[in-house]
Amino acid sequence: MNTEQASPEDLALLRATFPAAGDHRPPLGREAVRAFEAAHGTVLPEPYRTFLAEIAGGSPSGPPAYGLLGPAELPADWGDDRPRREPGLPFPLTAPFMWEGRAWEEDDTDLEEIDALMDRVFDHGSVVLGTDGCGMNWHLVVTGPHRGHIWLVTGEGADPFGAEFGGTTAGSGFAGWVRHWAEGKDWYDAL
User: Fold this and answer.
1) Where is coiled-coil annotated (predicted)?
2) How many Å apart are CA 50 and CA 30, to the nearest integer?
3) Which of 10, 11, 33, 88 places its Cα 20 to 30 Å from the Cα of 54?
4) Starting at the edge strand that comes first in sequence, how are the strands of the sheet with 126-131 ordered?
């Protein structure tokens, strides 16, 4: 997955999925994308960066179920009590992590550490692409080793999305995620 340069195949897929006459929002343009990046201390991965600049600034029809958000937007159920989002800070995970229902041993893991990790997973190193409802939010990681990968982040845990991580036949990254949705497949179609 090349996060520095968009492939012509990925851009063709995105343009076909979000045609100019579609119901999506107009593209943001290069200047607005650069302004977002400067304000948040990050450079968005390709092909998402070009998608925002040239194809669409979001889409009410998805993906995901409740629409594709712009890079500075959050789902309606996000809540006002969350810390400030910091996309430029490192995304803290490289493997699935489930915090709900985990048997904690007092001498093994401090619950305050888990709360702090959860805050970083929700608020650092990603843009929120949208929600499938009930706090099931799709994040595009923009910093760190998983830059360019999509993660499903919920109140129960966080899981990377793509065939190499299991559970789905989808390709990695933004284009693979959009392709999977456009083909009408269940997100986790390999379970």
Assistant:
1) none
2) 8
3) 88
4) 97-98, 157-161, 150-153, 137-141, 126-131
d(CA 30, CA 52) in angstroms, rounded, equals 8
Please state, in angstroms and rounded to a whole number, the distance separating the CA atoms of residues 116 and 81. 14
Residue 82 buriedness (CB in 10 A; 0-12 / 13-18 / 19+): exposed
pLDDT exceeds cutoff 60 at 107 = no
CATH number of 8-74+88-182: 3.40.1580
Strands 137-141 and 97-98: unpaired
Please provide the average confidence, as pLDDT, over all residues in the chain: 92
Tell me, what's the pLDDT at 10?
97
Percent of the chain scoring above 70 in pLDDT: 95
On the question of pLDDT at 28 being above 90, the answer is yes
Q: What is the mean pLDDT of residues 72-99?
A: 91
Amino acid at 167: G
